[in-house]
User: Fold Restriction endonuclease from Candidatus Contendobacter odensis Run_B_J11.
Amino acid sequence: MSNPIPTFYLLMNPLLNALFNLGGSGSINEIYEKVLELESIDENASLILHSPEKSNQTEIAYRLAWARTYLKKYGFLENSTRGVWMLTTLAKDKKKVAPKEVIKAVNKSDKDENKKANTIDLNDNNILNETKTWKEEIYQILTNEITPGAFERLTQRVLRESGFVQVEITGKTGDGGIDGKGIARIHGFMSFHVIFQCKKYQGSVSASDIRDFRGAMVGRADKGLFITTGTFTLAAIKEATRDGAPPIDLVDGDQLAEKLKELQLGVKVEMVEKVTVEKEWFINL
Assistant:
């Protein structure tokens, strides 16, 4: 049986096409969702995780990451410190690439610059082994080493640190997956009553999970918030933003890790001190 997921080099042009459709720029999540949509990638294929024991990253997201890396080195993409990827003037002019030529040129450039060359077999879907990242460590802790109750308390703390007030854990059996509620304060003037569900999960949340959650929250809050250590299927994302239905904001495992880092909850960020001696200052005394 053939692998239903395109290899990373076959995702290069779909990635470029997605950015053209997004107006020339987009976040990683926007690009990912647009590629799934434009390429009509089977939902079952989109649920396959690259390394379930390490992270919630899907195989498609992993391969798109390598496609972005090669296209950036090839001069077709650039990215900001805020995680937004953009088409370069070259990309807007050329529109498409020859994937094998991209790989050949980038690998040659790496060698010429005395970098460690990433030799990739074009028929190898595993691409490269990666070292454990801080996000993978968080993923393993949240999915394997803490209890569901601890994850609920973590969610409560994250919401409080993010400006929510009156955050309560209310989860109980038969409550449609509702785990708690709180009030989001906006600039000290406006507020929204929010009901949330936090799912400690290795996998992707489906559209039916979103529908069940919405059914439980109707009439009880202004907005819904669904937080998971896993990911959301494209159908789940569309269901959460469906016209005419109460809105539900989604936070996946990657976004949760970034928020923990931002709030420094269980994540310590250390800045390396750089000391420079200004010889001229001493001489001019």
Notes: Residues 16 and 107 are 20 Å apart (CA to CA). The chain is about 40% helix and 15% strand.
